[in-house]
Amino acid sequence: MDVALLIGIFPQVLLDGIILGFMYALIALGYTMVYGVLEFINFAHSEIFIVGAFVGVEVMLGLKSAGLLDGLPWPVVLVLVLVAGMAGSGLLAVTVERVAYRPLRNAPRLIPLISAIGISFFLQDMIRLFESLWRNAFNLVYPTLDALNLRFELTETLDVSVKSLVVIGGALGMLWALHMIVNRTKVGTAIRAVAEDQAAASLMGIDVNRIISLTFLIGGAMGGAAGVLFGVQYGLINPYSGFIPGLKAFTAAVLGGIGNIPGAMVGGLVLGLLEAFAASYLSLLTGGAFGAEYKDILAFSILILILIFRPKGLLGEVVRERA
Amino acid sequence: MIRHRIHLVLALAAVLAVALGPVASDLGAQGKGTIKIATQSPLSGGQAALGEGIKLGAQLAIEKSKAALEKQGFKVDLVPFDDQAKPDVGVANAKNIIADKDILAVIGHLNSGVAIPSSEVYKEVSLAMISPANTNPVVTDRGYPSVNRVCGRDDVQGVVGSEFAHATMKAKSVYIIHDKTPYGQGVAEFFRDDAKKKGLKVVGFEGTEEKSNFDPIITPMKAQNPDVIYFGGIYDQAAPFFKQAREKGVKGKFLGPDGMDSSDLTKIAGKAVVGMYYTSAAGPASVLPKAKAFSEEFKKKFGKNPEPYAAEAYDAATIAIKAIEAAAKGGKLPSREDVATAVRKAKLAGITGDIEFDAKGDRKKALYFVLQVASEDPGKWGDNKIVKQLTIAAPAAAKK
Amino acid sequence: MIQSLLAVALTGVSAFAVAVYPRSVLVFLLFQGSILFAYRARIPDWLRWSLLAAALLVLMPAIGYYNGYYLEVATQVGIFVALALGLNIVVGLAGLLDLGYVAFFAVGAYSWAIVGSPHANVIFGGESFPLAGGWFYLFLLVGLGVAALTGVLLGLPVLRLHGDYLAVVTLGFGEVIRVLANNLDKPINFTNGPKGITPISRPPTPLGLPYGEYFYFLALLIVIVVVLVNRRLENSHIGRAWEAIREDELAARAMGVPLVRMKLMAFACGASFAGIMGVLFSAKQIFINPESFTFLESIGVLAMVILGGMGSIPGAILGATVVTVLNLQVLKGFSLWLNELKNAGVTVLGYSLADLPTQFEPAKYERMVFGIILVLMMIYRPQGIFPARRRQREMTQ
User: Does a structural domain hold residue C386?
Assistant: First the structure.
C-alpha cells in the first residue's frame, strides 16, 4: 500500500466530497420543504430538478444561437440561466401539486406517494418527447463557459475550478435565502404555521392552499437551481439523469432529519463526503478487492447506524407521526 | 356502486373486444401474407437512446431491402418491442413474439441480461435471433442454432485494445474503468487480463454506475499518472468522464471499445477526446463508402447521427431479410426453421465489414479497426482515421 | 340467477373467443374480466369456486396451449401476486413502509441460481454442481428460509424507526443487496456480477408437462398457499397485533403487544413469500443478473399493493394482476395495434399514420401511459380497487 499516495490525495478527495455534498444538499432542500409542510415524499422532485437543468440548457443554447453567450459576462449568463431554471421548475412543481397532490390532501399518506411516482414516470417521458421533437436529441450538453472551467492550483495535489466554487457559493446562498424566508418573513411564518397544524392555520386566516402552492414553488425553484448547477458542473443531462441524484438527495434529507433545512445541508455533506472517500479510497485500501461501487453500501450502512442512534436524523426535529 | 362500475367496465371491454379483436388479428392479411421482423430493445428508460438506435437501424434496413420480398407478393413489416432493459419484460415479449406466426426473425437485444433468457424462448420455436449488441460470450457459447450476433465478442475486443495499448501506444501502465454492465465489465476484464500477460502495469481497475460525478475516481487515478486510460463502456458515460478527467489535468491517453463510436462522444467531450483511440468492427465513413452512405441516410431520415449498434442492427436486419428471401425461394412463405438455417448460412458485405457466421453464430472473422478521433467537431466524426487493423477469430470453444 | 347464468356464459364464451382469436389482446382481457366477474358476482359459492377453478385450472392452461404468451403473462401475474401479498403484510397490515422489498426476491433467486448452476463450482471448487433438478423443491423452502432470515436481519436494526426513516433505510437495504449482487464477483466470485448466472437447472416436470404449463401451475400453487397463509394470519392474534401496531404503536404496546417480535415476524413473513417466488423465477428464467432487482421493481410492487387497496388480500391480488397485465399485455397490445395501423397505412382525418415521425413511436410511451394511469387511479379511487373493510370504513367517515 502506497501511504504517500493515500495521504497525497486526501485534500482533493475532501474537496470533491464537499462539492458533491453541496449538490445533494441543494436537491434535498426541495424534498425537505415539501416534507416539512405536507409530510409526504415528493417523489417527482427528481424530475422537477432535472426540468430545471433542461430549461437552463435551453436558455444557454438559445443565447448561444443568438450569439450572446460569449458576448455577455459570465455572471450575467449564469444568473439568467439560474432564474430561468428556477422559474421553470417552480411553476412545474406548483402545477404538479395542483393536479396530482391537492385532490389527495386527505388521503392516507402512501396514496400521494404513488401519485408522485406516476408523475415521475410521466415527466421523464414527457421531457424525452419534448426534446426529441424540439432538438431530436436524448442527451443534451451544457455549453462550456471558459471562465467557469478555470482551475486554481492551490497546491500540487489540490486544485479547484470556478464552477465548483459557484456550486458551493450557490448552495450556501440558497440555504441562507431559504432560511431567511422561512424564519424571518411573514410568508415563512405562515408556512411554519401550516406545517404545524393546517386546520389551526386556516382558522387564523391563512390561506392553506396558497401557502402549500408557495411551498412547492420555493421547493421547486430550489430544485431548478440545483438542476442548472448540476448541468454546469457535470456537463451532460438526459431525461432520466435526475432519478439517481434525486434518490441520493432524498437519502441525505432523511439523514439530516427530514423537514429540517440545516439538516438537509448537514445530511448532504455527510453523504457527499462518505461517497467521495469510499469511492476514492476503498479500491486503494483493499488492493482492488472492493471497488468504488461499494460507496453506496458504505453510505447506506452508515445511514442505518446513524438512524439507530438518532432515529429522527442528525438534526431531526420531532415531527408528528400521522397514521 | 363498485359492482356497477365493474359491470360497466366489463361491458365496455366486451364491446371493444368484439369491435377490435378481429381487426387486430386480421389487419394486413392481404396478398400472399405478411412477413414481420421484430426488434426488441429498451425504448423507454435510461438506455432508450441506444435501444432506439437499434430499432431505427433495423427500420432503415428493412425499408431499403424489402423490395425483393414485396415483389414476390409479401408485405414486410417491422414490429418494435420495448423490453425496458428488464429480463422479465423481455421474456414476456419473446413469448408474444413467438405467438405471432408472421414474425420470422428478431433483431435484439441491447442488454445481454435480457437477451439470454429471451433467446431461450426463441430457441423453442427455432426463431432466428440476430443480436446487434450482445457481446457477452455466453450468448453464443450455448451453441443454439438460431442465435447469432453481428457484433464482436468481449473476449476478442478487449484483447484488440490491450494489443494496441502495448504494441502501438507503448504504454507501461494502464488504468481501467468500466460501467458495471456485462458489456463494459466484459471488455474491461479481457483487456486487463491480456494487458497483465503482456507485462503492462494495471494501476487501477474500477467499475462504476455513476453517470455524472467522476471526481472520486479521477482523483486517485490522476495521482497514479497512468500512460493509458481504458474505458469499457458506452460514450454517454465515457464522454463526461474523459471531459472531467482532462479538466482536472489528467495526462494519460484515452482508449475505448466500440461503445465510443458515436459522434456524440465529441459533442459531449469536445477537445478532451481529440486524439483518443477506440476499437471498432465498423470502419469509419471516410474509408468505407457503405458506412458513409449509411450514416448519411440515417441522418436524412431520422435527423440525427446513428448511435453505436445502429449500424450493427442495420446489418442484422439486412441479413434477416436476405435469409428470408433465400428461404422463400419459389414464393412460398418460409418456415422459421428455414429462416434460421438461412441466417446461419448468410454472407453479407455489410457496413460493419464482411459477415459470415461460424457454427456457434459468432462472426467467423472479426476485422477490428483501431481509430483515432480526428476533430472536436461532431460533424467530422466520419474523418476519424484508421490507425491499425487487426483480424482476430472468435475463440472456437467455450472458456468455461 | 341472472348473474349465475351471466357468469357461466361469460367465462365460457370468453374462453371460446380466446381459442378463436388467440392473438387478440382484448379477447384475453375479456377472459380475465370474466374471472373477476365470477369472483364478484352475487352467485352461490359452489358455483363461484367451481367457475374459478375451471378458469384457472383448465381453461387458462388450455388457452396457454394456443398462445404461450398468455401463459407467460399469467405466470408473471402469479409471481407478482405473491410478491404483492408479501409486501401487503409489511406495508398494508403492519404499516411498515418498505421501499426495498425486491431484495428478498433477489435473495431467493440467487440462493437457487448459485447452486442450481455450474457457477457454484467456481465458489466451492470441484465438479459437484449444478445440483440435480430435484433439489429445486427443497430449495423452494431454502429460498423461503433464507429470505425470511434476511427479513429478520433487516428488521433488527430498524425496529426503532418510523415512517419515512424506515422507508429510506429499506430503500438503502434494497440497493445494498443489488449492489452486492452486482459487485460480489470479487474477491470471491459469488454472483458473477453483472454478467449473471446461467444456465440454471429446472426441475424435471411431472407427466411430461411443458415448462410453460409447469411454471404456471407451480406459481398458482404457491399463490394459493400464500393466500391461505395470509388469511389465517390476518384473522389470528398476529394479524390483529400487526393492525394494532399500524394504527397506534404506543397503544398497541400498552395493550401488551410484543412489538419487537411482531415487527420482526412481519418482515420475515413478507420476505419469505418473495424468497420462494425468487427461486421459481430463477428456474423459470434460466438466467439471472442484478438487472431484475432494481429499485423500480420495489416501487412497482408497492404500487400494486396500494392500487389494490392496502391491507386487503383480494386488493393485493387484483392490484398485482392489474399492474402486470397493464404493463405486459394491455400497453404492449395497444402499441402493437397502433403499429399495425401504421404499417397498414391507415389514415386518420386525412393524415396517414405511416408518416408519423419516429418520435411518436407508440412502444416508447408505455411507461408514460402507466404513469398517467397511476395518477388517475389515485385521484379517483384513493382507497384502492378492493379496499380492506376497515380501511373502507375509515375512508367514508
Answer: no
